[in-house]
Amino acid sequence: MNQMSDEPPVVLVIEDEQPLLDMYVGWLEDRYEVRSAATATAADEAFDESVDVVLLDREIPETSGSELLAEFRDRPGRCRVTMVTGVEPDFDIIDMGFDDYLTKPVTSEQLTDAVARLVHRDEVAAMTRRLFSLARKRSVLQTSKPADELTDSDEFDRLEREIESLRSDINESLERIDSGEMVSLVREFEAEANRPADPGCEAR
Amino acid sequence: MSYDTPSFDVSFADGTSALVSGDAKSARTAFYDAIADGLENGEAVIVVGTNDSPTQVIAALGDRTTVDEERLAIVDATGEGEDGVVDGVTVRAVGSTGDLTGLSLAFAKQLQLLEDRGVADRVRVGLDTVSTLLMYAEVQTVFRFLHVFTSRLGSADLLGLFTLTPDMHDEKQVNTVRTLFDTEARVEGGRVSLRGSGYE
């Protein structure tokens, strides 16, 4: 994923009703790089590891939303998936591996909010991962070098400042976090810890 | 508004999360003293216990103050409890100690419960102990969990108290966890000394 760079996040919209598909794409294309697919085959072709967020219609011909999702989850990359559904689903769907869901009819605001929320979650995940790695690095230095040597070190000074600025960025980003978002993030951290190492992680 | 804590001789600012560090026994004692201060002030309290059963939590608070069951909620993170009511106090259990998603969800439900009861104006939240979480889950996951958990306390203007026993972990882990807390109450020989910010 590329949220730490200047490239816009990539959103894949999968919807079999062409007018809806066009409308969703229209709402998103100002801010994101949007790909679209009206069939399972097209979705399969459009999906790769550069996709950040998938907007997935629950009822897609040839397959089902959950089958398609399972297929995406088996591939490399860590996209987030919002399911668009005709009926209000049970809370259980979150456990099925969806990150979020929207109930039809979907307004422009709901759709852009949902995508922004998932992109934001992605950013927070990346920032906390980075903060941990910096904090651990500082900690290693603190335990291995004498205090006066650290005080004199420009590198250590830079590290401290980077930690402080990242902490404040994260705090700002989470200033209005609600309980639902807290649970979603923690679920994500745990899922990440249980996944085999993602080669892209450390580079972010 | 703030969270008066006479047992530490301080008042914590809204949204503060403080680490309470010391040997297990002293940190636990100081922790319950500070949590009981909240009940004493008329605040609501949520205790997340990784070692103490709900009965032990209620007993520890009952030794220090009068427990109003309406203003207390417990998350049993020992991995051995179940949802229910213990001595009039609502308990939400987490399947296993290292299940941080379950812990977050149980906490969210307890906060909601206190809100529904109309007593969540000021809530003092205690987690005893981070040391146990570090034994059951990866340090990176615990670190990130603590970050969003303390952020949630911050966004709701609550007070968070988290015990940690530094001697149980290597120094690198302890220092890494410390990064997340602006405030630390160090407990040594029964004395509590505060450092950092977020209190006066």
List keywords for this structure.
heterodimer; A: alpha/beta; 5-stranded parallel sheet; 5 strands; elongated; B: 200 residues; alpha/beta; 9-stranded mixed sheet; 11 strands; 28% strand
What does this structure look like?
The complex is a heterodimer of chains A (204) and B (200). With 204 residues, chain A is an alpha/beta fold. Helix content of chain A is 51%, strand content 12%. Chain A has helices at residues 18-28, 40-46, 65-73, 108-144, 147-151, 154-173, 179-194, and strands spanning 10-14, 33-37, 53-57, 80-85, 100-103. In chain A, strand 1, helix 1 (18-28) and strand 2 form a beta-alpha-beta unit. The longest helix of chain A is centred in the middle third of the chain and has 37 residues, at 108-144. Residues 198-204 of chain A have low confidence and may be disordered. With 200 residues, chain B is of the alpha/beta class. Chain B is built from six helices and eleven strands. In chain B, the strands form two sheets. In chain B, strands 6-7-5-4-8-9-3-10-11 form a nine-stranded mixed sheet. Chain B starts with a strand and ends with a strand. Chain A binds chain B through residues 124-125, 128-129, 131-132, 135-136, 138-140, 142-143, 163, 167, 170-171, 174-180, 182-183, 185-187, 189-190, 192-193, and chain B through 99-101, 103-105, 107-108, 111-112, 137-138, 140-141, 143-145, 147-149, 151-152, 154-155, 171-173, 175-176, 179.
Helix-strand layout with pairing:
The complex is a heterodimer of chains A (204) and B (200).
Chain A: E1 10-14, H1 18-28, E2 33-37, H2 40-46, E3 53-57, H3 65-73, E4 80-85, E5 100-103, H4 108-144, H5 147-151, H6 154-173, H7 179-194
Helix pairs in contact in A: 4-6
Chain B: E1 2-5, E2 10-13, E3 17-21, H1 24-41, E4 44-49, H2 54-62, E5 72-76, E6 84-86, E7 89-93, H3 100-116, E8 123-128, H4 130-136, H5 139-155, E9 159-164, H6 171-178, E10 183-188, E11 191-196
Parallel strand pairs in B: 3-9, 3-10, 4-5, 4-8, 5-7, 8-9
Antiparallel strand pairs in B: 1-2, 6-7, 10-11
